[in-house]
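Project outcomes to date are best conveyed with an example. Our students and postdoctoral researchers have been running inverse folding experiments weekly, and each run begins with a structure described purely in tokens. The record below, which covers 448 residues, was selected by the lab manager from last quarter's runs and is presented without edits.
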């Protein structure tokens, strides 16, 4: 069977897609890159925002039209929407099966049932929690790999559906993670991103005292891995030891993604975030003191129930104080089943939410542009991760501060490091020309 999986949402979903594709390949199926070529289409969904769900329903409408012409194609739904909207999805005419976030390793079984004529079934059992280290992957990148280290979340922020859809925190055993990364390094992957809803909780559910900082040190010891990132940190849980490791070890990208969500203590309390603005800013000071060249990025929600103009002004003030390197902003949307959905009225009008969202975006673009302009005519190291979508002769990669850098004529050096002179900037992108290319950082192989 020819299989196409469309992924929505976070990098954890991307990693789940890679696992499902790897398993299906092991069953003898073929991965295709176009929905039109597929016999089986799986939508790996996200339920974090209403907008993501709308996109999935839009795609189902499109697939429904394809199905009328090609009635023999199968359609499955995976990901967080399955946990949230089981009946609704199964009763959708286009959908043949659903598979839960904790059952993705049973995707081969789902296809077997389709081939036997089974339809409208759900595979939800919690069998894949301890995702075995031997799982096959169909890696979507050639030089960079996502590695999930912990699944689920125990925080229960009042607006968030994740603890309900992905369950409680479950860390993968360190030996399994390290084995996977060693295999990746042997296959030529030089850049790794460790993933979890809250990576700082890593190890707390395992026996013994092995923590996230121990894992970081062990990953950095793996020969062949040249750059390591991790996502996402929870402000309260980020340990100083982690900051010290990132700061002192050149293998780590200097990035801390620390979602603040709001600059108002009152709203933070309603969100159950567990910190005040003052505590958050103290953490930022610690990060900047220990790792002065670190980029700090964040997530913000605008229009949370009862958010006043003053609350919003306070969020803008935090933006001015921190001058985040990047802000992901979203307008609050009700997620059924969450505490906020049950107890708070969604009382900020949509027009005000959009106005606040646009204000954050405008200020974010200005700050990002100012930061980009500071880099003009400087040089930066970048790992050439993939082909640019703008011009296929160019490569793209990330600077140590996670700024996307498009490298002119870089595509023939993919998988290597380049020292790049930055010649043009925008708020979100940098463009540059190679000064030199090396196989591994610090080891000159080819000078242009
Ligand atoms: S930390 Fe909060 S926002 Fe993040 S996944 Fe957990 S509950 Fe959701």
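After processing, the design step wrote out the following sequence:
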């Amino acid at each position: 069977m020819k299989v196409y999986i469309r992924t929505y949402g976070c990098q954890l979903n991307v990693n789940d897609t890679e696992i499902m594709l790897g398993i299906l390949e092991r069953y003898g199926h073929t991965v295709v890159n176009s929905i039109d070529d597929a016999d089986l289409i799986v939508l790996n969904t996200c339920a974090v925002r209403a907008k993501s769900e709308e996109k999935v329903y839009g795609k189902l409408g499109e697939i429904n039209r394809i199905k009328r012409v090609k009635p023999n194609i199968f359609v499955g739904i995976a990901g967080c929407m399955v946990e949230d909207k089981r009946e609704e999805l199964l009763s959708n005419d286009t959908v043949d099966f659903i598979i839960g976030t904790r059952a993705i390793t049973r995707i081969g079984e789902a296809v077997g049932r389709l081939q036997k004529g089974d339809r409208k079934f759900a595979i939800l059992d919690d069998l894949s929690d301890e995702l075995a280290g031997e799982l096959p992957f169909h890696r979507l990148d050639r030089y960079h790999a996502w590695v999930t280290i912990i699944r689920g979340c125990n925080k229960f922020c009042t607006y968030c559906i994740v603890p309900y859809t992905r369950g409680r925190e479950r860390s993968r055993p360190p030996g399994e993670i390290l084995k996977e990364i060693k295999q990746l390094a042997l296959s030529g992957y030089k850049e790794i991103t460790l993933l979890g809803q809250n990576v700082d909780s890593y190890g707390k559910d395992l026996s013994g005292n092995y923590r996230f900082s121990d894992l970081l040190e062990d990953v950095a010891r793996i020969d062949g891995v040249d750059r390591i990132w991790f996502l996402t940190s929870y402000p309260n849980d980020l340990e100083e030891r982690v900051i010290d490791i990132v700061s002192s070890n050149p293998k780590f990208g200097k990035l801390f993604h620390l979602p603040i969500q709001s600059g108002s203590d009152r709203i933070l309390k309603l969100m159950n975030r567990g910190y005040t603005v003052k505590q958050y800013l103290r953490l930022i000071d610690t990060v900047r003191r220990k790792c002065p060249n670190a980029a700090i990025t964040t997530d913000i929600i605008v229009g949370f129930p009862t958010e006043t103009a003053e609350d919003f002004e306070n969020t803008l003030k935090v933006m001015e104080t921190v001058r985040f390197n990047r802000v992901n902003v979203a307008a609050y949307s009700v997620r059924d089943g969450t505490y906020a959905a049950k107890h708070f009225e969604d009382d900020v009008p949509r027009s005000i939410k959009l106005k606040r969202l646009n204000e954050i975006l405008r200020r974010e673009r200005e700050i990002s542009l100012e930061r980009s302009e500071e880099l003009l005519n400087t040089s930066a190291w970048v790992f050439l991760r993939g082909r640019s979508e703008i011009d296929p002769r160019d490569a793209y990669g990330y600077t140590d501060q996670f700024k996307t850098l498009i490298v002119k004529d870089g595509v023939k050096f993919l998988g290597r490091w380049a020292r790049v002179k930055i010649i043009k900037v925008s708020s979100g992108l940098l463009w540059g020309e190679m000064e030199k290319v090396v196989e591994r950082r610090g080891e000159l192989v080819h000078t242009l």
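The longest strand covers residues 429-440. The chain is about 35% helix and 25% strand. The training component of this project remains on track.
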